[in-house]
Amino acid sequence: MTSYDLAQEAHAIDERFVRASGPGGQNVNKVSSAVELRFDVRASTLPRTVQDRLLKLAGHRATSDAVIIIDSREHRTQAGNRDAARERLSTLIVLAHKVPKKRRATKPKPAAREARLTTKHRRSTVKAARRRSRDEE
């Protein structure tokens, strides 16, 4: 999968750096290395159809006002987390550019329908044979 060039969407991206939890020792208490990347989908230059697919793909990461929030705290450095967050956003945008195939409704063939009914009848016969008859009670 190729990445999307986020330079043209720079005006729609907002980054905040916060203190991360996890490994890092005392450094984690001093340095704001985790990044919270906010991407305003409606302010971007993406086509409307791509914007809609992007919001659908983002799922719970999208807010009600069409802002996607990506949180990255997997690296110990600010630059590493920034790159990771931007890469995840880029991947989402590339996926949103792919138009899903239209599903064509199909009907089962008559032979398949007959085979299904035959199997159902056979199972029904097997199960009926397991039941107690009224004479046995």
Task: Summarize the entry for a quick read.
This protein has 137 residues and is of the alpha+beta class. The chain has four helices and three strands, in the order βαβαβαα. Strands 1-2-3 form a three-stranded antiparallel beta sheet, with helices on one face.
Structure description:
The protein is of the alpha+beta class and 137 residues long. It has a domain at 6-97: Double Stranded RNA Binding Domain. The protein is 41% helix and 14% strand. It starts with 12 loop residues before the first strand and ends in a 7-residue tail after the last helix. The mean pLDDT is 82.
Helix content: 40-55%
Please provide the count of β strands. 3
CATH topology value of the domain at 6-97: Double Stranded RNA Binding Domain
How would you classify the quaternary structure? single chain
List keywords for this structure.
4 helices; three-stranded antiparallel β-sheet; elongated; 137 residues; Double Stranded RNA Binding Domain
